Amino acid sequence: MDMSIRSGPARVLLAVEAVLATGLVIWSAIGDARGSYALLGCVAVGLLAGLRPVRNYFHTRWRRAQFDLRRVRRDPHDVVTRAFDVPLPNRSRRDGVTEQMGARWVDDTLITMLGIHADLTVPTTLTCSGVVPDYAGQTLTMCTIANCLNTFDISVDSVDLVSHGRRTAGPGHIARIYHATLGPLPAVADRVTFLVIRLRPADFADAVARRGGGSVGAVRAAVVTTRRITAALNDAGIAASILTARQITNATMFLTDGVPPGASDETWSQLIHDDTRTRTFAINPADLPKIAASSGWSHDALSTTLALRLRPGSQPGLCTGLLRVNEHPTSNRVLGESVSGLVPLPGRQFEALCATLPVASASWLDRSLAWAPLPTIGPLQIGGCGQLIGADGAGRGVAIALAAAPAVIVVGQQQCVWQVVSRAVATGMTVTISTDRRGYWDPLVTTVADHGALSFDGQPQAYQPSPHLHVVDEIPGMPIQFTDDTADMNVTLLYVFDDVTRAAQSSVRATIRLIHDQVSPGYIDLEVAGHRRRVSIVTTPEEWRMFGSRPATQRAPIRRSPLPISQLPAQREPTPERTSPLPLRPAR
């Protein structure tokens, strides 16, 4: 038992006993009505002094007993039930196969799921308070979701917006140096967003009866509701798609970083699996907008999951939230104390985990959470921002996801090229280099010191499910087109040129171009879809020393890393398998 729980009430009980003993002595000595009054007074004082601490003590003991009982009686198979597919009427793919909608029965609740898609090929503008929505479809608000829940004769029990992402991955020292460069920016390199729809057929029995009754009518009603919500989101400019049963199963594992919900060992304050731990917090309503947009993503944990829940019927116009972090204490990849407004959930960690997944959710936990008005929650980013490129004239961060493009061109000096490649490694991409000048790349490969993350073409390399970046360094005669045969692969080709002239003479058709200014070396021009944006290089002395050089100009803003490079661990931190159920880019 926690000694603070034991010692506090014990001291109070001792004081109460002393007061009652004093009353008994006075009553025995006086022996008349005045003695009785004195005894009653001492009893009253004792009750007033000990009631609240004793009540808290027994309340904690009761919660501990409930916690132990839930652990004994829990069956993971009742929590994560098998998903099944339902044919969608009048919906067929180009190959003639009927499209499917995945669903999952949990007790009296039917769960369906949507994938929310963002255009990752456009730059993301970041401030310390959140994402600047420069392009349509980059963000969405909870009010937008609430406005899409008008499903006529079918009521929705709850809708969860679940966003799962990470800032950094890969070799520990590379990820930590890049993390120090990001500072407080909510730059989530890799993020996937879902919408979990929960329906209770008992709440719309008439609608179920009109569609055949029983489980058949309930499933038909779920199909209608899910399609209505999907259409409403698409009409509002939010790209959404219905997930199949296989995608729902994959999404469940993706949201837990590959660990089945019942595979972790639950303690009073966390879930433990091997050398990682998972903690879930409730969010104070006053801090919900800030945590959802920025501070909830600006920490050192391995991954973060934000779940925001709407209840259109019982809590109209209100929203509640949970924040879950996956941590690795050995390498200091933990949440820390920097995020204010988080409320611990002792004894409820497994139920809180399930509340962030498309599985059974405890209604008693839902009732204990605090709710916040929807209008206070600003725009929330849908997809990942990729890696930081630099800062614009207003000092805002500018990032882009290289993995979302089939081909990228980088033109610049060695340190600039190395920075782009090392940040790709830091954000979790697996990088392979094809070059005829190994001396150009050897120092960077040696610094990274992880062939699973950065290696030369032809070296043995284990399979990695993460996005792959294939660097092509001006090799004469090497194919330089992203062919239709490889367009659907999770591979981005990055072509490196030393000067603009050679890049212009090439026949590469690149979605993204990064051009280092040779006259003003502190700047990079970012070109996407014909639009050019000038940004200044953002780095730290530690990052630049990793490349064996100092910044060429003092124009670039410098953030000082809180950790010297000598203290950064060289081991590779555990990176769970992250096979996203949603594609990074549409197939050609």
UniProtKB/TrEMBL annotation:
It comes from the Bacteria. GO terms for cellular component: plasma membrane. Keywords: Cell membrane, Membrane, Transmembrane, Transmembrane helix. Residues 187-283 form the Type VII secretion system protein EccE domain. The keyword Calcium does not apply. Its main location: membrane. Residues 548-588 are annotated as: Disordered. InterPro entries: EccE_dom (IPR050051), T7SS_EccE (IPR021368). This is Type VII secretion system protein EccE domain-containing protein. The keyword Transmembrane helix applies. The chain crosses the membrane at residues 12-30. It is found in: Cell membrane. Belongs to the EccE family. It comes from Gordonia effusa NBRC 100432.
